[in-house]
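haha ok so turns out i had the wrong file open the whole time. this is the CORRECT one, sorry everyone. sequence first:
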Amino acid sequence: MNILDGRKISNQIKEEIAVEVAQMKERGEKVPHLAAVLVGNDGASLTYVGSKVRSCKKIGFESTLIHLPEETTEVDLLRQVEDLNANPDIDGYIVQLPLPKHIDEEKVLMAVHPDKDVDGFHPTNFGKMALGMETFIPATPFGIMELLRRYDIETEGKHTVVIGRSNIVGRPISVLMSQKGKAANATVTVTHSRTKDLTEFTQKADIIVSALGSPDFLKADMVKEGVVIIDVGITRVPDETREKGYYLTGDVDFDQVAPKASYITPVPGGVGPMTIAMLLKNTLLARERHS
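then structure:
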């Protein structure tokens, strides 16, 4: 069993980006500028956005955090989005999800200009990705692909089972892994909550990408020996015995499944750090396109 170390690889990527940013500064060029819009005080979102801001500082990016109160109206948020679209200093930005229930997430994401959509959620970017065109790839699937590439995981002709069909992870990773190229050329099956006899699919899978959000869902008897496991799920499980009052776990029962796996991502420390690294990569690409 080998660990797919997202922290290590994400740090390598950040170091590579930092070198490029340093070269930009030496040439007197504008450095990439990433903005994040956060509405409300969701604990996980605050942690995630804080990590993004620290990462920007570490690699030499400019960053702007726009923290709006929970009661912010949809109209006010859309106005903020339009301001960011029009601001030439901002190369890319994200609107942190989830948004408060009174705001239509789809309407907000549709309002983000595709050229600044470093999350890769806009239909224009999703469509280009599906067609194999150059675009912003959603950060989490982008991170998974980079992990597979850098660990030289054999994917060609392999049966990949994706658990979950969200527009953020499940659907895009199924498209990316079925395309031509490195870490791709796989035969992909997408499963979800309505799939009958899910175990029949997972037991035959060479690679499993689980993006379900259900703690410890995938058990040892559901996978075969030598499987590659990519655990995208991350859930806060309350635990009063812990200092923080909770612990983080993924979709995969790690202790059970790891002995059977050839490669596996831990939670935390697997896909999560890669998501932030690839968001920074997308911001660098946005800066290059705007130059």
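The CA atoms of residues 49 and 287 lie 20 Å apart.
again sry for the mixup
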